[in-house]
Amino acid sequence: MATLQAPGEPGAGTQADAATGLPVPGEWGVVPGISGARALRRMARAITANGKAAAGAILLLIFILVGLFPGVIAHDNPTAEIYKTNLGPSSAHLLGTTAFGQDMFAQVVYGTRPVLLIAFGAGLGCTIIAMLIGVAAAYLGGVWDGVLNLVTDVLLVIPAFPLLIVIGSYLGGASTGVMIAVITFISWSYTARQLRSQALSLRNREFLEAARVRGERPIYIIVVEIIPTMTSLLVASFLTNALYAVLFSSSLQFIGLGDPAQISWGTMLYWAENQEALQTGQALWIIVPGLCIVALGAAFALLNYAFDEIGNPALRPVRSMRGKRVKLAK
Q: Which positions ≥6 away from 87 have C-beta within 8 Å?
């Protein structure tokens, strides 16, 4: 174990893991006095040393590049019904064509961007709302804690996906923006409960007492003093929320509650099921978008597991920890 000396900051002398350089947390990777920017830099270095994190980051980067530059990869119009129907894979159409005469490969490529927009938009929205409500409830206490907890508990006891189905049915043909807003509104409560629990453990720490003595306002203490110490938990929460956003949105689109005119992996599954793709020999129409959803979900999940290991050394594989101790002993 090495020691991080951060002169002039609360938390100087915090223990750091020699393998990653990250502060060793007491719980959930919380280290008072370590700024969010510094924690993110340490996490970036640790990602390269963690196999799961590296695999998840590479996979996610591939999807991001595809979503940013779909026209470079696929040269056909994904909505153009100009080809022969139900063609098999060929050099002209790598995955064949749909029952409507559309190029399937182009649909998969162009369908990446809406899925990523929903994942990042809903994931970020859920995390921000949960962060503000959870931390504010824990720090302010009293009536504020009671009211904010009541709102959180109401959403916690309502099953998320059935509620999404009800709202989606009412809205009808939800676009990407509407899908992000609905998933964000429904899905922040569990993360808020986690962040509130963590903020409660920080409430009486010395660096917060010092900020109160200086006369800092509660909003300043919450945003500047508390939230930056929870960086690793916030990143893990974002990854979890993004993963569920992908699954929720694709499921809603599959059952016909999304915008059927929009090209995305979920709507591809919807039209494939409507046109009985498996029965007509168009299995790729279902398999490929399904595998893409699984792969993107795996990328978020691998990054999430890796951040758990990075933030909490006790979760790392025993074999790798033994090897690190042997190296340190030498």
A: 93, 96, 97
Q: Rounded distance, CA 28 to CA 234, Å?
A: 10
245: domain CATH number is 1.10.3720.10
* Inside any domain, residue 8: no
Q: Would you mind telling me the total number of residues written for the chain in this entry?
A: 330
| Residue 14 dihedral angles phi and psi, to the nearest 5° | -65, 140
Give the per-residue pLDDT at 108: 96
Please give the Cα distance from 322 to 328 (Å, whole number): 10
Q: Which of 243, 200, 203 is nearest to 56 (CA)?
A: 243
Task: Tell me whether residue 188 is in a domain.
Answer: yes
The domain containing residue 268 runs over which residues? Answer: 52-81+101-314
CA–CA dist 54, 232 (Å, integer): 17
- Buried b / exposed e over 108-134, threshold 16 CB at 10 Å, is bbbbbbbbbbbbbbbbbbbbebbbbbb
- With respect to residue 174, please indicate whether it lies within any of the assigned structural domains: yes
With beta carbons less than 8 A apart as the criterion, state whether 237 and 195 touch: yes
Residue pointed to by tokens 């509660």:
218
Residue 87 lies in a domain: no
pLDDT digits (tens, 9 = 90+) for 48-87: 667 778 888 899 999 999 999 999 999 899 998 889 998 8
> What average pLDDT does range 115-137 have in this prediction?
93
